[in-house]
Amino acid sequence: MKRSTILLALMASLGAGASSALAASPVSSAAVASNSAGAQQFKLSNGMGLIVQPDKRAPTAVHMVWVRVGSMDEVDGRSGLAHALEHMMFKGTATVAPGDFSRKVAALGGQDNAFTNRDYTGYYQQIPSGKLEDVMRLESDRFANNQWPDSEFKKEIEVIKEERRMRTDDNPRASLMEQLNAATWQASPYHRPVIGWMGDLDSMHPDDARQFHQAWYVPENAVVVVAGDVDVDKVRALAEKYYGSIPARALPERKPRPEPLQKGERRLDYKAPAEQAYVVMSFKVPDLRNLVEPKDSDKDAMALLMLGSVLSGYDGARLDRQLTQGANRVADATFSGSSVVNRGPSTFLLGGVPSQGKTAKDVETALRAEVARVAKDGVGEGELERVRTQWQASTVYERDSVFGQANDLGSNWALGLPLDTNDKLLSLMKTVTAAQVQAVAARYFGDDQMTVATLVPQPLTDADRAAQKRSGAAAKDGAVH
User: Fold this and answer.
1) Is residue 248 part of a domain?
2) What range defines the domain where residue 441 resides?
3) Tens digits of per-residue pLDDT, 371-417?
4) Where would one find the signal peptide in this protein (predicted)?
5) Is 255 among the domain residues?
6) Closest CA to 440 of 314, 309, 267
7) CATH number, domain at 454?
8) Are residues 14 and 87 in the same domain?
9) pTM above 0.70, yes or no
């Protein structure tokens, strides 16, 4: 959902404990937070959040509801529930028939969709601004009153299984990443795939989804985000009318589930029909938790973000230049990057595809050599300045889109980040020195915190090729429900 490598890394997924507690206040109270772009944050009378970002350039608006629940809130044996419930949220209420929600939004001249990841679930509608009240009425109804017959769930779970087959089972690299996550994390719920293990989908019952909705879809655990050609006071009044009247309920206790210290290298080979090998290394790294008074671990997380973008954040970056170009190239493609802003633990990934005549081990060795080179020789100030410029340009570009603004504000809230996150991150980036980037390259890339997954190609049949072609088309399509 973000437009640059570093932005992807930053917003990938902050601990729930880092979320600021905002005192409940009635609709007539002042905003509890604001930012330089004009966004204002409020608390509805039932504890639900509201963020409004006026943008008068066009008569359109984006309306979103973000729920701070994702696959990390599931339990073993019930993987995939957050995503399954996202699908079921389109299957009706007492007043809206199954499948009618999107048709009603389309009739208003809008479009809608939803998404689920490890940390949160989101729903959105992009509509003419004059239709905002209509979508608020629809969305608040399904948030509070989602209901459907068992038959709808039984049909939809088969759709989800097919989605898993197309996006994961028939995609060797996606399957490899699933296996890498499972090997990297033991106690952390991040070891489960967002879409769920197939066995869990097979045994999932309609009441599992209903109970998940009852537990997590509560006002205190959600925020309404509205951006576009709107009046702040009118949006607050509508939000209180449609969302503020939803009864407040207590949230379940969230267990911290800390990951135990890894004390040795982990490796796995994954055999699948494929044309080329593929290798990905996962290194456990610090989280970015505090943007106001960063600790040493926060500073290291920022330096790791910078390192990831120095290595592969732009055309001709270090990995591209050293590994994929010239007569001695070892890789057809490479990547690097860290996910340090999550509700759960963080990693730094290095990966690549061997070029003809080279092996996955050759790529692994070359990737680690580039990090070792940074640890030994450091980086140039010009490289860091390029990363900062990219981040600043991406932030400006993001603000040029009404959807981008709403999406940015919602994901920040879901991850426990303040409204002025982008400004704070840019300020922190300006403080990261070349010496800090060199230091993290030396500190976090040893064997003991590393997990390596290698795709071992197996012979391809015509059926395999057809399945992988469908998988690629599904990934390109990008539909999320």
Assistant:
1) no
2) 266-477
3) 999 999 999 999 999 988 888 888 777 778 999 999 999 999 999 99
4) 1-23
5) no
6) 309
7) 3.30.830.10
8) yes
9) yes
